[in-house]
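assembly run, all chains below
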Amino acid sequence: MAVELPPHHYLNDGFGIKSWLLTRDHKRIALLYLAAITVFFFIGGAFAVLIRLELATPAGDFVSDDTYNELFTMHGIVMVFFFLIPAIPAVLGNFLVPLQIGAKDLAFPKLNLLSWYIYIVGGLFTFYALITGGVDTGWTMYAPLSTKFSTTRIIPAALGIFITGFSSILTGLNFIVTIHRMRAPGMTWFKMPLFLWAIYATSLINILGTPVIAITVLLVAAERLLHFGFFDPSVGGDPVLFQHLFWFYSHPAVYIMVLPAMGVISELVAAFCRKPVFGYRFVAFSSLGIAVLGFLVWGHHIFVAGQSIYASLVFSLLSFLVAIPSAIKVFNWTATMYRGSVSWQTPMLYAIGFIGLFTIGGLTGLFLAAIGMDVHLTDTYFIIAHFHYIMVGGTIMGYLGGLHYWWPKISGRMYPEGLSKLSAGIIFIGFNLTFFPQFVLGYLGMPRRYHAYPPDFQVLNVLSSAGASILGVGYLLPMFYLAWSLRYGPAAGANPWGASGLEWETTSPPPTENFATTPIVTESPYNYPSPVVKHVA
Amino acid sequence: MFGIPLFPDSASTVAADVDALYFFLVGVSGFFSILIASLIVAFAIKYRRRHVNEVGAQVQGGLLLEIAWTVIPFLITLVIFFWGAKVYFVMASPPAETLNIYVVGKQWMWKVQHIAGQREINQLHVPVGRPVKLIMTSEDVIHNFSIPAFRVKADVIPGRFVQIWFEPTKPGTYQIFCAEYCGTKHSGMTGEVVVMEPVEYQTWLSGGAPEGSLASTGERLFADLACNTCHRPDSRGRGPMLNNVFGKPVQLHDGSVVTADESYIRESILTPAAKVTAGYQPVMPAFQGLVSEEQLLALIEYIKSLSPPSEKAGQP
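ok done. output:
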């Protein structure tokens, strides 16, 4: 039986440009974010391509040193603040939070639209900094390099980060209020899908942590403009104070990036094993545990910055503690597969890829939490490899897996299965080839942010650059076939996966008001066989 | 392997400790990575979906398993924590007798100042088998003095002194990197440590220090800057007597006590009003911006030389 798109859904509820730019529908706002973050992802990716081209040879012969420094700075700023932090919450979270709790929209639909505009204005400031000369301080903007010595466009970039932060705060606030107040009848906290627990934990970090980075970049701008002595020791400031403030936000920010991906993986593993997530409450509370502990470990970024050895010991111990909830998640996902009905469809391939890469990323974090080991590894390519395993191997795998899983719900249509499996494979191989050699480079001692390097390191760098070109192809493919499927993909039907969850109970795409009638929840979130499984053709 | 370097030179006493921890961590990581990967692949094959309406077994969880995979990783991380802390304590605790060398970082070079008077740029000559302590500061931004073969590094921060120590175990030449991003020519801020046999080192040391020892340079500067009009060798000066001060506790006018180490002397030259010795008026002018980092080192070394070696704990 051929499935057809429903006659009325959120995508055909108004067609003009105004119906998008003035929309208050969380699903349309999610798509506005999808368009914007995709643009930023490919801008940030283009910088990465140029970085890997430069590093294919030891000599700094492809771009100048100043250009190289701007490339890795802008790669970091664009990817962290304009792609990784908003990616899953603002796109998938926006789309799914109301659908998964059985609500018509978020608690504050206009505020949600405002968040997107704030994000765009912040992005434009950063873009302005970029085209008028760029920034060369590294995304970490350490003082006094950023406050005194650099001559690049730091103030507009800092303002861009400052402004975009309000978008994170408002979105976080919106999610928290929505999850507290707008759950459908019967949707208790422990009947919520684990994705929502992850989004909730992430939102807490967003509203508590983001103000600190906002203050920090304002202090940088103030010191640059007005020569206050916050950070510059020649006027009585303390440069390490900047690092405390910066990492007080930027370490929790790692969890802003990876917690939502963990939430996605819980959904994928349950749906593609047709089985409840093993140890639901442990997985749910581990999200909150990570959010809380994440605020107490910033000092592990400054073990070699003159921190007292006793402070370093405390931060080291707390950093090891944060590994425990992460390990709990990995073990529970793996156990979920045991006696499951494991499908090898594309989203599950991404989930498996995530678990593998996140495991390596997490385990290499143990190296860095051990102080005596960190001294040798910090500021080398080991760090680069470690955090790319978490942020790219983790967050982007989760994001792409989630995008494929919910694409039929978002667009109403299926993407080409063969091509999507191929690109998942290309991304996995390309990723490992790019970043695994960097662990070895790091132990050899190659410092990060080096425009030129000793010839001994070349073979490993060539491997990494070759991997990056494979990875680039893997990221381009989904953009094309997902766009293609918008028009030519076969209609998906309400629940193409036979998955449980309220979002699969409504049509694909859903109507603007999400559900024809308010759903009443009686079952736990991963209750198989859910009634819909029987309808799968 | 296949011409790919996998492991760096190991040329200091602490390097062996770091490498042992590294191999343990590689073992732990390898074990868990392979465990997880094998389970996932095995489950994905064994429990693959065989017909479209199939569902998995409705298992909710298991408390014993949850406890096991909470407690076991916790115990393993405790082992790593204590091991990492133990290695770090060695790194952070220089022996009592060290060869002290000053390092000043600036965009984009390393300036090395030996106590005997030799100066080097982007090179550091040290003898094998003797603990060396580097006392470092920066003239501008934060740098990081990193010697991968010795497994040590530290941020070199403007406005304060930081220290690292190492004991080279093998003569040879090893790479120095600036590991903290410091601006345009960051990747050019490199150099090398030359580790020499003690005899060769003595020859090198006697090779040339045209201006005399660092302390004698400091003594001339002490007179040129007219420090000696107030800091006199007897107790009649307007400033405190500096003989036998280094390394000793100093009573401040607010009642607190500080140790007269390099950082305190540096601060007392640049911003003397910050910590005034009890019994003296805050009359000394601030030298912030008037003396360079290298002149400061010479002054400090001169003040150190006023304390006889027999009474200076930790000085060669």
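Residues 311-316 of chain B have pLDDT under 50 and may be disordered.

The radius of gyration of chain B is 27 Å.

not gonna interpret more than that til we talk
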